[in-house]
Amino acid sequence: MVESLKVLVVDDEEPLRKILALRFEQEGFDVVTAGNGADAVKLAEEERPHAVVLDIIMPGMHGFEVVKQIRRIPSLSKTVVIITSAKSYKADIDAAKKLGADDYCVKPTDFDDLVSRIRKHLKHRAGIA
Q1: How many CA atoms does the CB half-sphere of 48 hold within 13 Å?
Q2: Which of 6, 78, 82, 92 has a beta carbon 3.0–4.6 Å from 126's, enabling a disulfide?
């Protein structure tokens, strides 16, 4: 039996988080969700998702800090991290990638493009798709 790909969706906006979770489930992914950065880091370590789709502007822990913490966890070295944000400044995109994000999608995000990017990065980072 082939293991399903697991994605962790992190966004403080519950409606968006639920929509993304539903769409990923329809694509055959196992989905875990978090509404803030601290929960995201904890769930990432516990659940070991193949990919994390992460908002950066959240109360408490900023998404960039989440990326830094995920990249410090050896068991998550092959986890793909994709930032989603309404912020489209080049400085933010560059900072996200410097911290270890695999990609950066500007909201509103085209879902099919997001899935395509996840699969591309999974193939590159983890050798799976």
Answers
A1: 9
A2: 78
Has this prediction a pTM greater than 0.90? yes
| Burial class of residue 11 (count of CB atoms within 10 Å of its CB; 0-12, 13-18, 19+) | buried
59: three-class secondary structure by DSSP: coil
Grouping H, G, I as helix, E, B as strand and the rest as coil, residue 96 is: helix
Per-residue pLDDT of the chain (129 residues; tens, 9 = 90+): 346 899 999 999 999 999 999 999 999 999 999 999 999 999 999 999 999 999 999 988 999 999 999 999 999 999 999 999 999 999 999 999 999 999 999 999 999 999 999 999 999 887 776
CA distance 98 to 23: 29
Do residues 51 and 73 make contact, with C-beta atoms less than 8 angstroms apart? no
